[in-house]
Amino acid sequence: MKAESIVMSAVIPAGADVIYKAWMSAKEHGAMTGSPATVVAKVGGRYTAWDGYISGTTLELAPAKRIVQSWRSTEFPSDVPDSRLEVELFPVKGGTRVTLKHSDLPTGSSAEYKKGWIDYYFTPMEEYFSGK
After folding, report:
1. What is the average pLDDT across 14-29?
2. Across the chain, what does the average pLDDT equal?
3. CA dihedral for 44, 50, 51, 55, sign (positive or negative)
4. What is the distance between the alpha carbons of residues 120 and 29, in angstroms, rounded to a whole number?
5. Distance between CA atoms of 6 and 119, rounded to whole angstroms?
């Protein structure tokens, strides 16, 4: 099976340091997405999001700049390896450009996960950080 990748960005109305800290905090990650999360905020630390639907391990950290994690959902077939998520944070006028590079997704799943990133991350993050 050939893996798929997606790359997408949104400007979130908060500083890169604020978004980074929220992503790497169980309490704040849950608050910004609207669903329970667990996070061990260090390289090698495990995490879950969306009440266990998403899980993985943090592979690289560059505070306020970059987060790299292994990533899988409960929908991944058991014989499929984890995908790779790179979260890049770049300060821009009006906040931070958050770019997600999600690679090694199971064949045929990229459109579904792209919609999921918009519906369950970018949209709630924009609302959370703008105070709506």
Report:
1. 97
2. 95
3. negative
4. 12
5. 15
Q: Residue 110 burial by CB count (10 A; 0-12/13-18/19+): exposed, middle or buried?
A: middle
Query: Is residue 37 within 8 Å of residue 84, measured between CB atoms?
Result: no
In tens, the pLDDT along 32-53 reads 999 999 999 999 999 999 999 9
Amino acid making up residue 70: S
β-pairing, 83-92 vs 95-105, is antiparallel
What pLDDT score does 7 carry? Answer: 97
Q: What's this model's pTM, rounded to 2 decimal places? A: 0.94
Neighbours of 43 (CB within 10 A): 11
Q: Is the pLDDT at 86 greater than 90, yes or no? A: yes
* Strands ordered across the beta sheet of 46-49: 4-12, 95-105, 83-92, 66-73, 54-62, 46-49, 38-39
**CATH class entry, domain 4-130:** alpha beta
